[in-house]
Amino acid sequence: MDRKLKDYLRSGLQFGLRGDLVEYREEEKYQLKLQNFLKKAVKLKIREEIPGEWDFLRSNIIPSKKEARALEFLLNIPAKDEKKIIYRIGKKVRLR
Amino acid sequence: MRKALAKFLRRNFLLVVGIVISLILIIQTFGGAKVIILTSQESVVVELRENGEAFVQEKRELELTLGINEVNFGWEKARVNPDSVKICFLEEPEKVSILREISFLNQVSSLIWEIDSVKEGKELVGISYLLSGWISYDQYQAKVNEGEDKISLEAYFIIYNQSGEDFRKVNIFSEDKTHWQTDIKNGEGKKLPHFKAENISLQKIYIFDREEWGDKVALLYQFFNGTDSPLNRDFIPSGRVRIYRKKGEELSFLGEDEIKKTASNQALRIYVGKVQDIQIRKEMLKFKKINIKRNDRGNIQVYDTEEEYEIILKNLKDKEVKVEVREHIPDSWEMLISEPKDYIKEDAHLIKYEIKIPPEEERKIHYQITRKNLLPHQVIKPLIYE
C-alpha cells in the first residue's frame, strides 16, 4: 500500500478580540494506492486512524464505517490489479 | 541424627507431606505408561520468517506399544517457543490419540505427551515449533555492461543460526519459498546462491533531489522485475547491492545501495553516485513576506510569501539526457507560474519536472509560488541552498 498526502491547505483563520490567531482549518486529501500482486482477488478492510478533531468531506469510495477517530473502507481488488482510495478531511486546530 | 531429623520434619511438615503426595500422584499418573524415546529426525524443514523466527517441522519415528505411551520431548538450549510445540500423527492418526500434554513450570525446555495407541509398532510423527535466533537477508551483486544498457543481478541468501540447535541436511525455505538443503550448526553462517538473472534491460535515470542526494545530480540504474524481463520473480527481497561495471575483462566497483522489496511488474532503482557532467544551479529570484497579520501587541500571527525560483541545468555530455528535478515545497502553497507548465505533483509537498537536455546545451525551469497562511513559529526557509 502506498499512502500519500496529496493536498494540504490551511484556511479558515479565526482571530480573537486582540488580534491573536485562535483557530484555523486544515484541509487534507489522502490517496491510498493498493496493489494486489496475488493471483487471486482479495477483499480488504482498510482502517484509517485519524487523531484530533476532524470532519469527513468526501471520498471516491463511500466509507463502510465512520467513527470519531477512524474511517473504514471495504475494497475488492481483482487479481494482479490495483485500486485507489481518495478521501478528503477537514481538521479544526484551536490555538487557545 | 534422629533428633535432627525429627526437628526437620516438625519444622517442614507441610513441605514433606506435599512432596509425598506429589510423588504418589506422579506414580499414579505415569504408572501404567511406557516411556517412548523419540528417534532422531528423519527430515527437518525450516521455514524462515521475517522476524528472526523459523517454523520448524520435524519428522520422527515412534515405536508404540498398545495402551498408554509417554513421549518426552526436550530442547535444552534451543530457543523454542514452548507454546508453539505441536505433535501430529502421519501414518495412522485414527489409531493414535493424545490424552494429555504435560509441561513443567520449573523445566520449560521439555514436555511430555501421553499417547493412547490401539496399534503396536512404528508411527511417523510430525513435530512442529517456532524457533527464534535466526538472521537471514539477501545480498546482491549487480554487474553492468560497458555500454550501461544491460545489467545482471546475482542474489545470495545469507543465513546465521543462533537458535541453539544444530541441523544436518535441513531443508531451508526462505520467505519467497526458495529451497536449499544444507547443514547448519548453532553459531554458523552460510551464504547460499539464491537467484540470478542476466541481460536485464537497464535505463540510466538522472535525478536532482536535494533532500535525498544533496546539491548534485544523482545517477540511478532502473530495471524491471516482471514478465517481460529476464528478472521475473514474485518479488525481489530487500538487501544490500554492490554495483560493478564491466570494462573489457575487468570489473570496476561503482558503489553500494539498498534494494527495496519490489513486487512483480515493478521497477527497481539503485543509486550509483553523483555525476559531474550534468550541472545544476538554482537561483532565488524573489522571496517576500506579504499579507502579514499582527495582533494588538504587534506580534506576527500569520503571513503569506511570494517566491520565485530558477533552476538552470547544463548537460556537458555528448548525448541527450533526461533529468528528473524534484522540488520539495513544505506547508500550504499554490503554484502561480511554471515554465515548463507540465510538472507532476507527486504529493502535497513534492513536485517533479522531467527535463530533456540535448548534448552540451542547457535548459531552465522557472516557477513562482505563494505559500499561504504561514504561522510565525514555523521555520519557513526559502527553497534555496546556495
How would you characterize this protein structure?
The complex is a heterodimer of chains A (96) and B (386). The termini of chain A are far apart. Chain A has a four-stranded antiparallel sheet, with no helix packed on it. In chain A, strands 3-6-5 form a three-stranded antiparallel sheet, with no helix packed on it. Chain A is mainly β and 96 residues long. Chain A has strands at 2-15, 21-36, 42-49, 54-59, 65-66, 70-77, 81-94. The model of chain A has no long low-confidence stretch (mean pLDDT 94). Chain B has three helices and 27 strands. Chain B has helices spanning 2-11, 13-30, 210-213, and strands at 34-36, 43-48, 53-64, 67-74, 86-89, 96-104, 107-117, 121-132, 134-144, 150-161, 167-173, 179-184, 189-201, 203-209, 217-225, 235-236, 239-247, 250-259, 262-263, 266-275, 278-294, 300-315, 321-328, 333-339, 344-347, 350-357, 362-374. In chain B, the strands form six sheets. Chain B has a six-stranded mixed sheet, with no helix packed on it. The longest helix of chain B is centred in the first third of the chain and has 18 residues, at 13-30. Chain B starts with a helix and ends in a 12-residue tail after the last strand. Chains A and B meet through β1 and β2 of A and β25 of B.
